[in-house]
Amino acid sequence: MGPTGNLIRLPFSQGGQSMHFASCAHVEALWWALRRNGAPPTRRSITAARLAEALPHAFILEAQGNEGLRFRLVGSSLLDAAGIDLTTMPFTSLFCDSWFGTAKALCRTALAESATLQMKVCTQSGAWGQIVLLPLSDPRRRLLLGCLEMAHPSALLLNALTIEASGFTRDPDARLHQAAKPAAPIASKQGAISGLAEAPAPFAPAPALMPQEEGPEKRPDAARPALKLISSND
Which of 157, 174, 159, 200 lies closest to 110 in space, CA to CA? Predict the structure, then answer.
């Protein structure tokens, strides 16, 4: 299973009744409201006050190379449902082993295309829920703002989720967000070291240690009397 198509709202229903996830809707609406000039909101703009009642369900993920995404901030409801502290743990720890690859692929697409991602998830015990993931702007890191809300808050989530449906919402005017790359070191001249380190000074022997030829001019200490060794039998 992979990401397919654009999606504004995934249809959620169970037992013939539609399900509304207010926290996910709030986080997604906040993300769209904070966008500027086609760019995703900044990390600093996502505050606890703005998340309001969605805060316990919200989290932030950081992409770390090929290692996938790891939790950086985790809401209290998600911590309670996981049963352990998820901070620094991989996002895929919420999913069944066979769904790791799908979850990673969906997240990579959301980051690469600055698209919002919605997933309809289900636990092995049959509890339904929704996850939304939304890219954030940051000059140094690749981040996703997320929200996970379950119809049954008591459902255990660790290594328990499957993905029943997924979709993206793309803005045609969106700017693709890429983390800034560190500046390449400037080539130094004359053996200088780039950065804050100073260039090594050229080595020269101390003048006093260098042999000197006898010349017409006498050294300053030539006028001084020569040292004599005095022996005393007293």
Answer: 174
